[in-house]
């Protein structure tokens, strides 16, 4: 039996515009006893980013996080996709440590059919 092969295709690249003040967010969480998703402001530099896509966060040329996009916000509304040249906010599943100039690369993993 042939092994299954997956091919990754990059769909979008984004740039984190500014980092968030984590102390202020932590204070807000403790005060209001609510859970929030941290989504820094981003600029989509190329491609189109979609909700629930796979993503990797790259900081200084090294991959820091690989996971899934949990939500995308544009002008305070949750959206399914954002195109190149626009700004939005993205929250990643189980990741909150964003820094300015981080790059988030969204990609799709496609199964390749093999033949003998």
Description:
The structure is a single chain. The chain is mainly beta and 116 residues long. The chain has a single domain (5-112), classed as Beta Barrel (Elongation Factor Tu (Ef-tu), domain 3). Helix content is 9%, strand content 54%. The protein contains 1 helix and 8 strands. The protein has one helix at residues 22-32; strands at residues 5-16, 41-50, 54-59, 62-74, 77-79, 81-83, 87-92, 103-112. It has a 6-stranded antiparallel barrel. Strand 3 and strand 4 (62-74) form a beta hairpin. The longest helix is centred in the first third of the chain and has 11 residues, at 22-32. The protein starts with a strand and ends with a strand. Residues 21-35 have low confidence and may be disordered.
Task: Give a short synopsis of this structure.
The protein has 116 residues and is mainly beta. It has one helix at residues 22-32, and strands at 5-16, 41-50, 54-59, 62-74, 77-79, 81-83, 87-92, 103-112. The protein starts with a strand and ends with a strand.
Primary descriptors:
Elongation Factor Tu (Ef-tu), domain 3, 1 helix, mainly beta, 9% helix, 116 residues
Question: Can you lay out the helices and strands and say which pair or pack?
Answer:
Elements lengths: L4 E12 L5 H11 L8 E10 L3 E6 L2 E13 L2 E3 L1 E3 L3 E6 L10 E10 L4
Antiparallel strand pairs: 1-2, 1-8, 2-6, 2-7, 3-4, 3-8, 4-5, 4-7
Q: Please give the order of strands in the largest beta sheet.
A: 1-2-7-4-3-8
CATH topology: Elongation Factor Tu (Ef-tu), domain 3
Estimate the mean pLDDT confidence: 79
Q: What is the distance, rounded to the nearest whole angstrom, between the alpha carbons of the first and last residues?
A: 10 Å
Any low-confidence stretches, pLDDT <50, length ≥5? 21-35
